[in-house]
From TrEMBL:
Source organism per UniProt: Gordonibacter pamelaeae
Location (main, coarse): secreted
Signal peptide annotation: 1-41
Stretches the record annotates as Disordered: 214-239
Name the UniProt record assigns to this protein: SDR-like Ig domain-containing protein
Entry superkingdom: Bacteria
Matching SUPFAM superfamilies: Bacterial adhesins (SSF49401)
Compartments reported by the entry: Secreted, Cell wall
GO terms of biological process kind: cell adhesion
Annotated keywords: Cell wall, Peptidoglycan-anchor, Secreted, Signal
Amino acid sequence: MAFRPTVPDRVPLRAGRLRMLVVLAGLAVLCLLALRTPAFADEAVPDETGDEPVPRASADITRKVMINDMKLQVKNGNTWTDVPDGGSVPNWSYVRIYIDWEIPDMTGVNPGDTFTFTIDPQGHLLSGNFGPADLVDPGTSKVIGSYVVNGNRNPDGSMNDNMITIVTTLSEDGAQFPSLHNGFFTLEGYVQGAGNDIVFTVNGEALAPVDIVPEPSRPIPDTPLLKYGTQEAGQNQIR
């Protein structure tokens, strides 16, 4: 959508999906068109010696982020299905946590400021590192920030005790918007182990409890499928 200089409007901002393990995640943000002028006095701290100003330190603006909705979904084939409150998923299911968020007031936000989603995996959600990756406004192709995923997967594939974090750093263009709306992340990974009433949290807010149950066994066929062959001497073939 093109900017209209005399009529404020809202512009959707979208980013690629995050990948964890085989993990993807996506972000879309709808922002107001009216841009605010940065307070240049806040961009740097004057040096008392009279030399060049000292660059302003980045700030954590996570407190400004509002989570509007969260849900756990499990992948069945090519379809994502909501896991109901008290529902269950098998061990090693591929799941995602959907996070709907907004920043209604960007007052005082500056380039380089960050906000973080911290996911408590409760020892049952496995993810890897990803990023940094650009956060791009599809309407203007402006890079409004970048994000990284800090996972809990060891080099050998095992799970450690770390929290999973998604850290977004705003660019100069991204910090100009007076608000960010209709943003979302989808954080994908594998559940491990077994247990009842497991509650994943995002920034301290709880998702509906879920049971993780043993993976269902697959029946052995009555007649095993067998194929015999012989190798022809001196030839690269089997018959």
